[in-house]
Amino acid sequence: MQKFNPAFSGTDVKKYFLKKNLKKDLPSSIVVFLVALPLCLGIALASGAPLFAGLITGIIGGIVVASVSGSQLSVSGPAAGLTVIVLGAITSLGSYPTFLLAVFLAGALQVILGLIKAGTIGNYFPSSVIEGMLAAIGLILILKQLPHAVGVDSDFSGDEGFLQQDHENTFSAITAALSHFSLAAVVISVLSISILLFWPKFKKLSIIPAPLLVVVMGVIASLIFSGTAYQLRPDQIVKIPVVNGFSEFLGLFTMPDFSALANKDVYIVAVTIAVVASLETLLSIEAVDKIDPIKRVSPTNRELVAQGVGNMTSGLLGGLPLTAVIVRSSANVNAGGRTKMSAIFHGTWLLLSVLFIPQLINMIPLSCLAAILLMTGYKLTRISLFKHMYHKGWDQFVPFVVTILAVLFTDLLKGVAIGMLISVFYLLRTNMRNPFFYRVTNEGDKKHIRIKLAEEVSFLNKAAIQVVLTNIPKETDVIIDGTNARFIDPDVLETIFNYKHNAYTKGIIVTLENIQKHYAVPKLNIKVEEDINKL
């Protein structure tokens, strides 16, 4: 292999790293393609949309969104979290073309949100909540894919909600699946997991991606079981639309109904999709950055613009709303993806598979794809992560665990919202305990107390300061030092000045140092932010 020479030109450097990354991005893109294929179909089915709509959304998420996005590892496509919204919207709006207009408008709104820098909200998601979300997604993958792994596929692939549309829940579905499993599916799943575990250990052979080998093995095993009593049923195998020629392919696209622009319900659906899709995207982006081996930081505002462009394109071509999706993105990271080329290639494979090899794709057992997702889930929810969060302390561990349980028993957005509330509680608790530095000295029989205020003293600190001032003993000299304070909340100032005014009744002498009567709210340094964004 050619070694990197610092004397290379800029073009040579780009070619070197492109070639180096392609060795990881190409195999990873195949894994993401195999994972995304059944998810796109399953989500389209659950949304009450044409199956092709799920595929076109995956293609756009791979090629269009990844090309515009600044994230190197995120993969976009139709999201399970939007299925209920989409199903209800198609029904309420009366026609699929009218719904497509709402998707187009939602994309336009996302572009606007990105341009006004609304993506910065993603920077306020606590680390413990994001880690909890990742672990929860890992557990959900394991629990939800177990029925598919044993050949019971009554619910669609990629469903993340606790309550399922088949009237089962996450746990009852597993019990039901184990009571009438398919032997062929179980054998294929066990062989698939064995390959995923042991094939990478053979370094010389690992040039062939283990997931690709799993799919080949799955097809062969399916053919072996064919014609026997254990033959896989049609619903246990991937099923994509078969098109006969490019003209028939073009006939699958649907245009939005722009005559419905006067329908106010279209705008309500558009805003709903834009808000939910943007939140899910920001959460996924933050989570993917957490598991990026290189620890890159994705530009969130640019991501909203990319998602908006993707949803506008999807609406124009007949697709579903799309978001950055943590399942596909995690599969990309775990498969060794390095740059956005992996996501772009995965979209290309989706497109080519529909055009040229639909019959071959329709031979892949869902159980071998479930095995790939089971391994992805295991890596996301490894035991070492729980140990790591526990050692960080209760203020990190409790929001982490609560987020896991909440996501597991509700859905992604509700679970994260609950985790955020718990995290905010611990944040407020910490702030209330750290508004000042407290030092006591003695001169003879008289005590001297110096209270040095922190840099930021908010109304959340009022109670803690009030308690300390109230408990100061009589005949004490008190100095309240605001030298380091850039901002003191008016409520806290009122408490301090009232205490100084009334303290003489207890023989307490209060001295205020560098405390103003009014503090302006500190302004963000917008120029610095703009300069950074230009880099």
Automatic annotation (TrEMBL):
Xref: InterPro entries: SLC26A/SulP_dom (IPR011547), SLC26A/SulP_fam (IPR001902)
Record domain SLC26A/SulP transporter: where: 22-391
GO CC entries: membrane
Parts of the chain that traverse the membrane: 26-45, 51-68, 75-93, 99-116, 128-150, 170-198, 210-230, 266-285, 305-327, 348-377, 397-428
Alphabetized UniProt keyword annotations: Membrane, Transmembrane, Transmembrane helix
Cellular localization per UniProt: Membrane
Listed PANTHER family: SULFATE TRANSPORTER
Coiled-coil segments on the chain, per record: none
Entry keyword annotation includes Transmembrane helix: yes
Pfam families: Sulfate_transp
Topology class, membrane: Multi-pass membrane protein
A GO BP annotation: transmembrane transport
Protein name: Sulfate permease, SulP family
